[in-house]
């Protein structure tokens, strides 16, 4: 999947968790890592919904944070 689209989906997910554009706690390296994780999971199992995978990856990040 297009990496920039996945990054935008990740950013929008953070906004749903009460962040705004300035307060998203990710730098470019973390965006790349999370986007890579989303792409890895969806390529391993194409039946997974990308939106759900993004939600899971962001939730996992926030729960460790």
Keywords:
65 residues; 3 helices; single chain; mainly alpha; globular
Please characterize this protein's 3D structure.
The chain has 65 residues and is mainly alpha-helical. It is 71% helix and 0% strand. It has three helices and no strands. Helix 1 packs across helix 3 and helix 2 packs across helix 3. The longest helix is centred in the middle third of the chain and has 17 residues. The mean pLDDT is 89.
Topology:
Blueprint: H1 3-16, H2 28-44, H3 50-64
Short description:
It is built from three helices and no strands. It has 65 residues and is mainly alpha-helical.
Biggest β-sheet: count, sense, barrel? none
Uncertain runs are: none
Reading the helices and strands in chain order gives HHH
Radius of gyration: 11 Å
């Amino acid at each position: 999947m297009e990496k920039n689209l996945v990054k935008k989906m990740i950013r929008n997910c953070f906004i749903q968790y009460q962040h705004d554009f300035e307060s998203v706690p990710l730098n470019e390296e973390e965006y790349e890592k999370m986007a890579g994780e989303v792409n890895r999971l969806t390529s391993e199992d194409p039946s997974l919904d990308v939106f759900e995978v993004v939600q899971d990856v962001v939730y996992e990040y926030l729960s460790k944070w």
